[in-house]
Amino acid sequence: MTDTVRPGRAERVAKLPPRERILDAAEELFHSEGIRGVGVQAVADRAGTTKAALYRHFGTKDALVAEWLLIVAAEYASAFDGIEERWRDDPRAQIRGVAAFVADGLSALSHRGCPFVNSLAELPDPSHPARQVIEAHKARQLRRLTAMCVGAGLADPEEAAAEITFALEGAQVSVQNGSVARVGERVVALVDAVIAWHGP
Amino acid sequence: MTDTVRPGRAERVAKLPPRERILDAAEELFHSEGIRGVGVQAVADRAGTTKAALYRHFGTKDALVAEWLLIVAAEYASAFDGIEERWRDDPRAQIRGVAAFVADGLSALSHRGCPFVNSLAELPDPSHPARQVIEAHKARQLRRLTAMCVGAGLADPEEAAAEITFALEGAQVSVQNGSVARVGERVVALVDAVIAWHGP
DNA sequence: ATGTTACGGTACCGACCAGTCCCACACGAT
DNA sequence: ATCGTGTGGGACTGGTCGGTACCGTAACAT
């Protein structure tokens, strides 16, 4: 009775090559359970493949972690692209769009915070291959935010971008421990205030 | 020649009872290497004692983690006490004092961020004994910050306290990845701006 | 002197870890 | 038909993990 035509989870993604399935599984498990809390066997199992295939493609757990974060960084970057595209000549609205994007991400159920921040907490070794991915992503994000602040004509764009970064990161952290309520609205309000504060 | 009178690290703290030495070792190792990255054997070694003694006192690694965080929370609380005492009838200065306190903590070399946030990233299990310690601490800190905002006569103290919390948490996160410069000054500036923004 | 207690030391357990190896099978190209 | 390649399956290694049990001893109270 279990072998009906209804495709199970493993079969739904069975059409993708093993490499993509492994990355999907890593995405899900690393984010929800933590990197060190997930063994490569568990990743291979959820991907419907084996450890051998995993090591054939990535060579190392650390490399898999780095590649996973690289994909997440690309997703963030394309979200930024969409925001810049949508409010093409209104940098102020772009900044608000970024804040709204983060606020939306907060409502994801059982939110575990920013994958980069969590990974940073789990990987204290500065030579870990994932570290440069994280730092590059954060630096790039700050650069884009700074460019938006420049475009918005803010008096001190670097300062404003830094403060907005604090707000966004802080909101993602605060949503993990349930102390602060209505985090989404409040981070948007704070970013708005920062824009107004530095505005022309 | 190695058994001179110069006391080694183990002897410097040898006067403290084993329980305190274990907690000191846990503090150091858990914070710098991460909870899951440190074995109980390593904690016992650095404490100059044995795993047996560690388990006699704490029963479980998880319990040791919880007790460590309890101590850190108490240290934060007493720092808040000192700040409230120092600017006894100037709540606005108290808030700035909190921001300066956090900013000072950022300059600690090889800063690994807030132990509570890092632990949260490492302990996704909501039933972990350390989780309630973390949540209680964060809630308490927000409550005290809100009280300061009330005392300062801010228009919307809950909102202001939440935004200040975002700023402080975000600064601690941002200092881990070196993307943002001058984090200390900037978080103080942001908190100042929030006060002014909500102020009467 | 005697008993109690906490201590340091160590051997040990079962479980899990990252990583390796070999095998049988399905496929596509020639 | 044959070959090479990537695959899923599983056994295996060496090491580390959290946690337990046992022992001899030093400190202290009585």
Which CATH C-level class of the largest domain in chain A is it?
Mainly Alpha
- In angstroms, what separates the terminal alpha carbons of chain A? 69 Å
Overall pLDDT level of chain A: 92
Task: Please trace the helix and strand order of chain A, writing H or E for each element.
Answer: HHHHHHHHHH
CATH architecture assignment of the largest domain in chain A: Orthogonal Bundle
Q: Total number of β-strand segments of chain A?
A: 0
Structural class of chain A: mainly alpha
Oligomer: homodimer
Q: What is the share of helical residues of chain A?
A: over 70%
Query: What count of structural domains of chain A?
Result: 2
SS field, number of helical segments of chain A: 10
Protein name (chains A, B): TetR/AcrR family transcriptional regulator
Organism (chains A, B): Streptomyces flavofungini
Keywords (chains A, B): DNA-binding
Pfam families (chains A, B): TetR_N
Explain how this protein is built.
2 copies of one chain form a homodimer. The first copy, chain A, has 200 residues and is mostly helical. Chain A folds into 2 domains: 9-59, Arc Repressor Mutant, subunit A (Orthogonal Bundle); 69-198, Tetracycline Repressor, domain 2, CATH 1.10.357.10. Chain A has 10 helices and no strands. In chain A, helix 5 (61-86) runs parallel beside helix 8, helix 6 packs antiparallel against helix 10 (183-198) and helix 9 packs antiparallel against helix 10 (183-198). The relative contact order of chain A is 0.11. Mean pLDDT of chain A is 92; it is low at 1-13. At the A-B interface, helix 7, helix 8, helix 9 and helix 10 of A face helix 7, helix 8, helix 9 and helix 10 of B. The structure holds a DNA duplex (30 and 30 nucleotides).
